[in-house]
Amino acid sequence: MVELTVASLRSAVLLTYTIGVRAFLPVALVLSVIAVTGSAVPSPASFPAYESVLAAAVHGSTVDYKALKRDRRELDAALASFSAPDTLPEQSWTRDERFAFWINAYNAFTIATIVNQYPIRGSWFSLAPRNSIRQIDRAWTTQTWRAAGREVTLDQIEHKILRPTFKDPRVHFAINCASRSCPPVRNEPYVAGRLDGQLDDAARQYLRSPSGLQIDGEVLKVSNIFKWYGEDFVERYARAIPQHRSARERAVLGVIAECGPPAAVALAKSGRARIGFLRYDWSLNDREP
Question: Can you tell me whether residue 225 is helix, strand or coil?
Fold first, then answer.
């Protein structure tokens, strides 16, 4: 009777120890993940499928839509990745992880919008170029895409998520509207670890291009993006120009002073500069002539 009781106690101790170890292992694993990543849920450290699309199709400021139309397997894989199960805890990601995710989603969905309708041959009677994204009926407002567990349109991503949530005007240099005058699609995904530098680089590259900025005497001619979304730039850039101008004008000059080419920087800081706006070319940013 005593031997049986001792054996039982030994078994009980062994069982308790085994359960304890087994219970401890998942906890230890979670703690190690948190220690390494800072998060207990999956996060989008990279975008391999979307990166493959960019590597294959982006050439300078143009996109090879014809090639993507001919073989869209990589594009479809990229689109699926934005709605994969590991995107569901999106609200638990860091700010920069979410910001990068939605910039990449917007650009991927814009590319797909064109590929789905390519080649675009709109009406000769339209005010938009025949191959323009503006020939696609309600491309921004009605067509929906699935990302991070929800249905979204391009307009919703831009005006309900990117602009109000992150309040960073550099997003206007990062998202692409598939047009010649738009800031080009970056040839790599935006990623949280390098996001700030990538956004600064996008701003500098655009303001060094004839689509973003031109100098005409003492007039700084800038993209209509600054006319449409000038208010977004005020908080970050207006204070850099201590002159008696409107907040929007100071914001535009402030962006140029920080991100423009040397000659434009000097003029923006001179106090003499006037602001004009360039014609916006809505022609498709197609690699095909």
Answer: helix
